[in-house]
Design goal:
The protein has 147 residues and is mainly beta. Helix content is 0%, strand content 73%. The chain is built from no helices and ten strands. It has strands at 4-15, 27-38, 41-49, 56-64, 68-75, 79-84, 88-95, 98-114, 117-128, 131-144. Strands 6-5-4-3-2-1-10-9-8-7 form a ten-stranded antiparallel sheet, with no helix packed on it. β5 (68-75) and β6 form a beta hairpin.
């Protein structure tokens, strides 16, 4: 995999009140990123602009095998979100508007690593301040840029 990559992240949230998939619009981000592999772990780093605010959030994605991945946010928002199969992980999610206690109950993780592409699919339940708010899916595709 090259150092320069393009990352596509698509997320879909189903509200805890049982909303239909048609009611929920998927969120998709496609952005250039940097990739490296260290000690058998895959790292992807990219900057995320924050709508209506000056500044960005630096995101570091760490993929460890096929059972765990992490998203570390720093800047305008700060969090260390851990997605680990069949576990619940808690984190403080700091935003410009205040802090939230976020719980992530990861049900499924699928990681497919190829020479020029890494695909990650995650299904999890999201709690905020001890209240279930959504069932979520994240699909991530990390693709080497052609030279």
């Amino acid at each position: 995999m090259t150092k320069d990559v393009l990352i596509s992240i698509s997320g879909l949230h189903f509200d805890a009140a049982g909303g239909e998939a048609d009611d929920n619009e998927p969120i998709e981000v496609i952005t250039p990123a940097s990739y490296y592999n260290k000690n058998g772990k895959h790292y992807v780093i990219y900057e995320e602009p924050v709508e209506g605010m000056a500044g960005t959030v630096r995101n570091t994605i760490k993929i460890t095998g096929d059972r765990m991945f992490e998203i570390i946010k720093s800047g305008l928002a700060n969090a260390h979100m851990v997605f680990e199969k069949d576990k619940i992980n808690m984190t403080q999610y700091e935003t410009p508007y205040g802090e939230l206690l976020v719980g992530i109950h990861t049900r499924k993780i699928k990681v497919d690593v190829r020479e020029d592409n890494i695909a990650v699919a995650v299904n999890y339940a999201l709690d905020i301040n001890d209240e279930k708010v959504a069932d979520c899916n994240i699909d991530m595709n990390i693709k080497a840029l052609e030279r």
